[in-house]
Amino acid sequence: xxxxxxxxxxxxxxxxxxxxxxxxxxxxxxxxxxxxxxxxxxxxxxxxxxxxxxxxxxxxxxxxxxxxxxxxxxxxxxxxxxxxxxxxxxxxxxxxxxxxxxxxxxxxxxxxxxxxxxxxxxxxxxxxxxxxxxxxxxxxxxxxxxxxxxxxxxxxxxxxxxxxxxxxxxxxxxxxxxxxxxxxxxxxxxxxxxxxxxxxxxxxxxxxxxxxxxxxxxxxxxxxxxxxxxxxxxxxxxxxxxxxxxxxxxxxxxxxxxxxxxxxxxxxxxxxxxxxxxxxxxxxxxxxxxxxxxxxxxxxxxxxxxxxxxxxxxxxxxxxxxxxxxxxxxxxxxxxxxxxxxxxxxxxxxxxxxxxxxxxxxxxxxxxxxxxxxxxxxxxxxxxxxxxxxxxxxxxxxxxxxxxxxxxxxxxxxxxxxxxxxxxxxxxxxxxxxxxxxxxxxxxxxxxxxxxxxxxxxxxxxxxxxxxxxxxxxxxxxxxxxxxxxxxxxxxxxxxxxxxxxxxxxxxxxxxxxxxxxxxxxxxxxxxxxxxxxxxxxxxxxxxxxxxxxxxxxxxxxxxxxxxxxxxxxxxxxxxxxxxxxxxxxxxxxxxxxxxxxxxxxxxxxxxxxxxxxxxxxxxxxxxxxxxxxxxxxxxxxxxxxxxxxxxxxxxxxxxxxxxxxxxxxxxxxxxxxxxxxxxxxxxxxxxxxxxxxxxxxxxxxxxxxxxxxxxxxxxxxxxxxxxxxxxxxxxxxxxxxxxxxxxxxxxxxxxxxxxxxxxxxxxxxxxxxxxxxxxxxxxxxxxxxxxxxxxxxxxxxxxxxxxxxx
Length: 807
Prior knowledge:
By secondary structure, the chain is mostly helical. Helices cover 68% and strands 1% of the residues. It is built from 36 helices and 2 strands. It has a two-stranded antiparallel sheet. Helix 5 packs parallel to helix 17 and helix 29 (652-664) packs parallel to helix 31 (687-702). The longest helix is centred in the middle third of the chain and has 33 residues, at 352-384. The radius of gyration is 32 Å and the shape is globular. The N and C termini lie far apart (83 Å). Mean pLDDT is 91; it is low at 1-6.
């Protein structure tokens, strides 16, 4: 297709659709302030509103003009419709139907999102050949704005820079996520390549635009896109070499792609073998990340999701769990090993193909793969018909390989997926001649009649959609953001709670959780609220609305264990506020349900144990926490919580063993627990054991740097830790462990370099066996002087008081 300088189209329904399509390309630039998930919700709502208005304009044009839709030769369109139908079937039988249809504010996905992408494709197919230049060039112009911001972030300049110290960071631009940005940039590299292949006059400009997008892609530091780009370049080069006219130069593209692949593989292997060399520091960070990829280490979180998705497919092989419901798959097949690597909350498989398999089953997966097959067949048809040149074919085919590779490690996202749909529509336009909107002529034109009923129906449906799925979720989203980050008075936030609770918006997965978290944040003010009749009434209503929100969401999403866990937290707050044992029992029941749904997740077990320990029912707490430890014996936190329960039950030795094992596993809890057990050990004459516990605690929390006076700790140190550091050397001295006493004394200097003089005197006295000055003391700090000069040395006063308090 020859891209020429397009004239302004004549004012018509087609002009309106072109304007709306150009407007939709602004999606990546839409970032709203005061939104819940500001990089996701506003731009998705914006896109849907634009598409809905465009669809209404198209229906009106078909209603009153001599026009008809011809979709007979549109395999890509029908493959999209087939996937939409398969996803809808899956959603209908899903355990979380509403969530599957409408998603949530964090992702804004689901069947409703794909429905708008199908409409977007249809609107794009109304374009004539001469209209495409507006859309493609518009997309490229928007991408250059995104690129400018991404480059500014990389070099830490401009209003979008997010690195104050000038250190290069992965660029995310206005997309908010560097991985999702990379896929968007990949699409625009392909668009620039296609335009360069079809326009001789502006080829240099398009090459420059493609190079700028490629540079920003590198700055995004996304490994999947780099791998995809290399594979896509090889496939594209091979296709070009096979189908282009006989010439020696036709192999240049393939040779260049192969050389690129060899360079990337060689640099990656070199970095992996020699990570500390000077050359490594000058290699793009994305290649360094690629070289350090470790599927059995830091990257294992993704393979865990893949295994969970495969297990989820086995649960429901035909129709899956429904789009957007990987979180249910993950809960059912939770791997507690995730705690040692990453967050335990995943709503994406990070492999679109496996996620489709688990969430839509075989039916949806076959339909999804059918989209790629339809794109491939249309590419072949367009080339054979002479509507695509060899170079254009190579670029568009290479993009499909690159994006498929990216999706093997990521997932669909509006910013890039809408461009994938745009390019699919472009390919479809090359497979046939002209638009899918045909002018009715001849005898058919005489029989064509206006359809006012259809026009009125389309206007009514559009208004309902704009209000119900545009304005309503937008309003609810902003209210939810104000609850999540309250800025006004408590009365104002309570009014937002009421708005959200009564909103008919469907993206409600986070609503009860955020409401419960806000009420939980009021715990320090409960006494004040109880004393104020107005605020007490408002809080009581907030409790009622939050419980109702949980009931509605649990009814829609019965297998979501996190809903039960958060509901239990709200029930505990209600039990505290009202002094009601019934609320506490409901919290216990909710936690048992959460454990039943996801038996290997430890949060609900820890929460249940916390309820039991609050009632001093330590035996039940011990049973629950013992099960948490069995879930994954290599986790430190369950052992720490079990130590606390043992301590409450008066089983000090068991508490000590659990506490020591949790420290060995790298988990450090609140200092009060270690002080409590340590003091008991000292009181029973086991000072050496107490000293070992304190020493392990400090080293686990601050690393071995705590014993090196030359490396001051560069983060705030609690008074309790200063007290331990000042007390620990004296315990070792009394145990006649002089070397350990001298070694551990360094911790006080590391925490507070101004105490170096005291530490030096202690070290000198211990080294020369002058211990008499220290035997009767409990701290290296001058505690007697601190009591008499509290305002002058508040740190010493607080630290000295730690070991004077009772157990």
